[in-house]
Amino acid sequence: MSTRPRSEGRAVAASPGIVIGYVQKLIHGRKPIPERRLAAGAADMEVARLKQAVKAAVAEIDLEREQLSKLGSQDPLMVLDAHRMMIADPELAHMAGERVIADNINAEWALRQQMDAIQAIFNQSDNAYLRGRQHDVEQAGQHILNQLMGQQLQVPADTAAASDPERPIIYVGEDFSVSDIVQMWRQGVAAIITEQGGNDAHNIIVARGIGLPALVGAAGILKEIEDGDLLILDGEQCLWTLNPSAAEELAYEKFIEAVSISREGLAAFALQPSRSKDGREMKLMANIEFLEELDMAEQIGIDGVGLFRSEFLFLNCKEQPDEDLQYRCYAAIIRRMSGKPVTMRLLDVGGDKACLYKQATNRDYSGSNPVLGLRGIRLLLRSPQLLSTQLRAMLRAGEHGPLHILVPMVTSRNEMLQVRKLAEQLHDGMHLKQPLSIGAMIEVPAAVLVADSLAEISDFFSIGTNDLIQYTLAADRSDDEVASLYQPEHPAIQQLIYMTALAAKKAGIPLSVCGELAANPEWTEQFLNLDMHALSMSMSNILPIRRFLSKQSYHPALPPAP
Ligand code: PEP
Ligand code: MG
To answer: What is the pLDDT of residues 493-549, one digit of tens each?
Structure first.
């Protein structure tokens, strides 16, 4: 019986799985960065040393890539590609070389400064994804620093061979790079925990991609543990428990069994159609922002993409992506779905995304409330060039498979009419084989109130419940202070969804839901009864909702079609 103290904690993000194992601390042998001024005339040699380190870091990544590509999953490869690109990016290595020359300092110091400078720029972004990329800069830079300083993480060769075969080893460290994780995975590690890291940190994406249970952002864990401590890593609930009681250990053993039975059960639903108990179909589709999210598409058996938020393509580009770049991105998604339908939303940005707002309008946002300002279709109609470029790129991509174009933030018939006319004009001029399908996002109460009129000029509707709730209840969806007033169950929301469903049915156009409510099982039966054609949600919710749907029965809530 262990006499070591028990403790527990939470992490920021997890790769799923539960592991009970023995802890081993794995600390990088990283010394502080040496900082020194160079002797006169030594700068060129120092730049050459930096270039050599960059080359070696790229070679190291290429080797890892080659070994990983045998695994099949695309995520780790993408992460390595991203790091490789960053290492080779002139912004990092070349600019660090410039610092060596300008300040006459050693390569490590110059590189560290350049990494800090790039991270500071990402840190200022108001986009959480871009802020999260600081971690990639750190990891890409560390590859080069490791080469410069001749340091590698030393993973013991016998990773998999714990003294108790029932209890594997869990590595705990400050931060593990993608390469560290790949190396550990190759040696058969059971699970990992890091003190640092956020929700979309690339190392956790890789851990998920290779199926390695993990926690990142487990702040303070290192000072609690000693090698050999027993630890429960709970990647299902983002928790860890150190030196658990015998009762806790037993409870977790049972939990592990239950999770594995439930997973096996869920997996069976990947092959099932999305239907109620009595056979009524309601498609279950995915909300995505990036192509790579579709890596799991077959494993889950999604019925299509119900919402592609195109703004993320724009956020990842320094300049507005041109028609060809947009076309390639949209076509890749449509091709990837091999004939299953894809709904792509036109750019939905406003003053909340300052850099994009400036890109689109050539001026800074000056309003006091971006959510009620020039956003979505309002902004696009004021930037005709941006709108027609995006429409053309989407229409071209639509030749590769069934595409539906979704118009965000519609509040009036006139807005929808303007976009529709432009889309028709472009479509006619491009002599395309596939028909045009363009629909309105119903996410503002005004759109519901004029839904009959909107339905006449829309090929479909998709309800964006996130904004619909926010605008109807006048409760900012991102403000903690009014979180209790942001109530999906409010009768006003039920009424608005009913009215939209009625208008769609009268007009005979398909209706779907793509806000978070689509993944809420408390609403599944209601949506079924309101004749929704599809629910679109994040990929991880599709199987649980499909299982839930299979237990519901259809009781029509709308009057029969006229
Ligand atoms: C919505 O508003 O419900 C929606 C799906 O769009 P977003 O969350 O991107 O505003
Ligand atoms: Mg919205």
So the answer is: 999 999 999 999 999 999 999 988 998 899 999 999 999 999 998 887 899 899 999
Of 264, 291, 325, the position where a domain reaches its end is 264
140, 159, 178: which is the final residue of a domain?
159
Q: Is 490 a catalytic residue?
A: no
Say whether 514 is catalytic.
yes
The preferred substitution site among 310, 467, 511 for testing ligand 1, maximizing ligand atoms within 8 Å of CB, is 467
Longest Cα–Cα distance of the chain, Å, equals 88
Q: Name the residue with the closest Cα to ligand 1, atom 5.
A: 515
Which ligand number lies closest to the CA of residue 514?
1
Q: Is the pTM of this model over 0.85?
A: no
- The residue segments making up the domain with residue 388 are 278-549
Ligand 1 centroid to Cα of residue 408, in Å, is 9
315 and 338 in a single domain? The answer is yes
- Nearest residue (CA) to ligand 1, atom 6: 464
Specify the range with the lowest mean pLDDT, choosing from 225-229, 256-260, 278-282, 510-514: 256-260
Expressed in angstroms and rounded, the spacing between residue 227 Cα and the centre of ligand 2 is 48
* Residue 558 lies inside a defined structural domain of this protein: no
63 and 150: one domain? yes
Segment 35-38 long-range contacts (CB within 8 Å, at least 24 positions apart): 35/105, 35/106, 35/108, 35/109, 36/105, 36/106, 36/109, 37/104, 37/105, 37/106, 38/100, 38/104, 38/105, 38/106
Q: Which of 83, 135, 143, 202 is catalytic?
A: 202
**Would you say residue 71 has pLDDT above 90?**
no
Domain count within the chain: 3
Interval between CA 464 and ligand 2 midpoint (Å): 5
Distance CA 229, CA 4 (A): 8
